[in-house]
Write a structure and sequence with these properties.
Elements: E1 7-17, E2 20-26, H1 39-49, E3 71-77, E4 85-92, E5 99-100, H2 106-118, E6 131-139, E7 144-153, E8 156-157, E9 175-180, E10 197-201, E11 205-214, E12 216-222, H3 234-238, H4 241-257, E13 275-280, E14 285-286, E15 292-293, E16 300-306, E17 309-310, H5 316-326, H6 332-336, E18 344-349, E19 352-363, E20 366-376, E21 378-389
Parallel strand pairs: 2-3, 4-6, 12-13, 16-18
Antiparallel strand pairs: 1-2, 1-21, 3-4, 4-5, 6-7, 7-8, 7-9, 9-20, 10-11, 11-12, 13-16, 14-15, 16-17, 18-19, 19-20
Helix pairs in contact: 2-5
């Protein structure tokens, strides 16, 4: 009789953050081989999530078979002055043996502060008995600072509340998240140096594009240029293989123009970044929940793709890119939103609306965003031990 190794039992917490959910780990709880970057870590996380799955369901893992639910987070006490916790995000591919470490997850950022406090990664002196705890987060994927304000009641993280977030069914406590200087380290918000570029995509045509690096590298195009209105829901795009192929071609060629890859063939190994989004002036539509969104309640329509599919709401990092682009006159987002100076924007997405804020300044011949701010919510769904077959780790 063949003998098989037992499963590892790894402490983990399953959390929702914003409109995403993922498996959170304390770095020191991981098996020793997985405490450092490399194949052992990737193999462990792939097996935890249930990838690669040729059926696309992640039935034998914690993943939810969408880009929003195929996520992992590793947290540790920060050794950097001024920071409480280091936050590392891994976007796990569903049907491929691949973990993408190239970007951040803005939605799960909302859960980082709560996890850090509850798991002793934040000094107790910083956590009030009642009130708001400020958690200074170092985002290790992109080397950026994030500030989360987490509500505390009787010394513990307050998760329940009446804050409603479109794309999340139930209300919860509000968590304010500020992304500090969300462009890359050199402040190059526009990698090409232009607010609007011409993007030549074989098989698609010549498109106007705003390519911005704020929150996450994002390629914005006009909805009408690719045959859409900006009011589309997931099935309108995700059921159309030709449309998905077209958006992937746009993403790949935009990534080359942004300097993220050297050849379009490299895009398949960089699925998480850049994102592609299409924008349009405001008009009313019916959200995926059946709720009516009035054109008068929004400034602009935005639909974004993540990991090759239209997102059911909006990625948090892409919301930062939207806020930054809307604040800079002359970008496609700003033009679609009416073309005026603004420090906040309310945009319509498939699940409803979201308001985000950013202030732009023009200094030393370049645009600069001090910080972008949005409100999200987070909640622990389950905590305990996730089991992983030893031979796969």
């Amino acid at each position: 009789m063949t003998k098989y190794a037992p499963q590892l039992r790894v402490p983990a917490t399953y959390m929702r953050g914003g409109t995403s959910k993922g498996v959170f780990f304390n770095l020191t709880d991981l098996p020793e081989a997985a405490q450092k970057p490399g194949p052992a870590r990737d193999a462990l996380l792939l097996r935890v999530i249930g990838s690669p799955d040729p059926y696309g369901k992640q039935t034998d893992g914690m993943g939810g078979a969408t880009s929003s639910t195929s996520k992992t987070v590793i947290l540790s006490t920060s050794e950097r002055d001024g920071y409480d916790v280091d936050y590392l995000f891994g976007q796990v591919a569903i049907d491929k043996p691949f973990v993408d470490w190239s970007g951040n997850c803005g939605n799960l950022t909302a859960a980082v502060g709560a996890f850090a406090i509850s798991n002793g990664l934040v000094d107790k002196s910083k956590v009030p008995d009642n009130g708001m705890a400020t958690v200074n987060i170092w985002q290790a994927n992109i080397n950026k600072a994030i500030i989360a304000k987490v509500p505390i009641t009787n010394g513990e993280v307050q998760e329940t509340g009446d804050f409603e977030l479109d794309g999340v069914t139930f209300p919860a406590a509000e968590v304010e998240v500020a992304f500090v200087d969300p462009a890359d380290g050199e402040g190059a918000i526009f990698p090409t140096g232009r607010l609007v570029d011409t993007l030549e995509v074989p098989g698609v045509g010549s498109l106007q594009a705003t390519m911005i690096n704020a929150g996450i590298p994002t390629i914005f195009i006009n909805a009408e240029d690719v045959g859409y209105t900006g009011t589309e829901l997931q099935d309108d795009i995700n059921s159309d293989a030709e449309a998905l192929s077209k958006f992937e071609a746009i993403r790949a060629h935009g990534a080359v123009q942004m300097g993220l890859i050297k050849d379009v063939g490299e895009a398949a190994n960089r699925q998480h970044t850049p994102k592609v989004a299409f924008v349009a002036p405001p008009q009313g539509y019916k959200a995926s929940s059946g709720k009516d969104v009035l054109g008068s309640d929004i400034d602009v329509l935005v639909r974004a793709l993540s990991m090759g599919k239209l997102h059911h709401a909006m990625m948090g990092t892409a919301a930062v890119a939207i806020a930054a682009a809307a604040a800079i006159p002359g970008t496609l987002v700003n033009i679609a939103a009416g073309g005026k100076d603004r420090e906040s924007v309310t945009f319509g997405h498939p699940s409803g609306t979201l308001r985000v804020g950013a202030k732009a300044t023009f200094e030393h011949e370049k645009w600069f965003i001090q910080q972008a701010v949005m409100s999200r919510s987070a909640r622990v769904l389950m905590e305990g031990l996730v089991r992983v077959p030893v031979e796969q780790s």
